[in-house]
Write a structure and sequence with these properties.
Layout (H helix, E strand, L loop, with lengths): L18 H8 L17 H15 L5 H8 L5 H4 L4 H7 L1 H17 L8 H21 L5 H8 L15 H15 L7
Length: 188
Amino acid sequence: MLSGRRLDLLDPSPLDVEIEDIAQGLSRVARWNGQTRGDWAFTVAQHSLLVERIVTRLNPQTSRQDRLIALLHDAPEYVIGDLITPFKAAVGADYKALERRLLHAIHLRFGLPPEPAAPLKRLVKRADRVAAYAEATQLAGFSEAEAKRFFGRPRGAEIPRLKPLPPDEAKARFLRRFAQLAPRPAVR
């Protein structure tokens, strides 16, 4: 990693996880394999910010910790990239296990439970699908009918307007939001 950390992908340690590495990687990983409209790719960093914002809109009472979990929901992609869902399915259970181990290490690094509670997982998944629908229809060339078939038409959720950002701006916004949500050290 640029921080100098060496992350063992098969046995990741929370001690080797740095938020700057996550932000760097996610701000350079393109959603939709870069097949989007705009001057810049829509990055996983932007997608993560979008999902966290949708979670908060869907449930304004969501705790700061749960919003941080939403922000970090795709954090393993900073080292393994963003595979499209059909490819993840083809790769199989080994990929999912690797992704889960990485996410657990990331959660532990930032004082989060390794596995979110089931209701939060469902809320984040719902927000992820709303984000995918918005991205598909606004950036990836899907018709509304196609997006509805793949992701479902979002109900009860506002569809935000999207604009891809330069990677450095996406990284800065991700780091700012992380700083707002992350637990603060105790003052002595």
